[in-house]
Design brief:
By secondary structure, the protein is α+β, with helices and mostly antiparallel strands. It has three helices and nine strands; from the N terminus they run H-E-E-E-E-E-H-E-E-E-E-H. It has a seven-stranded antiparallel beta sheet with strand order 3-4-5-9-8-7-6, sandwiched between helices. The chain has a two-stranded antiparallel sheet with strand order 1-2.
Amino acid sequence: MNFWRYMMVTVVLAVAGIAVAQADEVTMASGSVRFSTPSNWVGIMQVDGDPEVRVFQVPDPSPSAKDTLARVTVTVKQIANLQDFNDYVSNAVNKAKDLKNYQPSSSATGDQNSFVYTATESGTPYTYLERYWFRNGHAIQLRCVRPTSSQAGAGWAAAFDKGCSALAGSLNI
């Protein structure tokens, strides 16, 4: 009897795991901000209110991942007008410049509200990509942060960047 109960619980958990592995549909700001995350991203933090924040860990399959955290954050804050949005972006950029070993990237983003830079966290160099939008009375910030180098290699970094770009594309709608 215990064997069958164990098997049933195992099957239920396996089916639930498959359901969890699907792409996550996320809504924020009472439904005015919507996006999907890749199926392997793991939600690690959610803050409701103003600002509203969702943080996702992007798994790094390499041994170096035990000392680093690749993550993507979406923050939505109520903003009254374009001037307040510009102030919000300026404040965020100034905070970034205060990070240890901050270096702006020479990579052109093609957008005045997109910023690429590197900085150090706990002795590890990270690459940051931040993008901002003003829509429907909300400032939206997308912040993608990954170790500048990972033992997972360039393919993993490219997949991370592709996932970040796909999320940015869905937020830009």
